[in-house]
Design goal:
- The chain contains seven helices and seven strands.
- By secondary structure, the protein is α/β, with parallel strands linked by helices.
- Strands 3-2-1-4-6-5-7 form a seven-stranded mixed β-sheet, with helices on both faces.
Amino acid sequence: MEIVAVPIKPFGLAKARLAEVFTDQQRSDLGRATAAHTIGVISNFAGLAWVVTGDEEVADWATEIGASVILEHSPGKGLNAAADRVVEVADDARWLIVHADLPLLTEHDIERAWNGIPGEGFLLAPSHDGGTSAFGGNLRPPSFAYGAGSFHRHLAHTRRSPVRVIARLGFLQDLDSPSDYRTAVAHPRGSWLAGEATR
């Protein structure tokens, strides 16, 4: 089954680095808003977005906004385990894993990523700080290696297969820090985000 999936951990645990300028509730609101944006963009392109999570509240929220849910086998094991679960459900079909915190993401970004996945290979889209905002493939990768600097680890892990790298604004600009927030809201695509932390 072909899948475009968004891993989401509990909203209350997300975006710790934003605590410098936002309250816990504001960070939770920002997490929901950016995740809803990402899911909406994917749904507009693919017709359906999948959310992979081990959190019941996130699963209920995802269902309410029209996404389908993939439940993690081992909740709390992190993004690598969530990504493994996506590939397991895809079962040798094409899959794309997209981070939830991409406020400038567009349907064209998803289209380019989805259609850019090479046969029997992988696609990687880095974030500006060296992370991996999107990872797609048609087969199981040797391993996932999310975390700080993950893009180069993923590139190394997949080097024996065809690999395509795309650098697009929608994937490059994630939302991890106060400076990321300021950059995003200053861009015309991210102006919608300005009021989300005060709702």
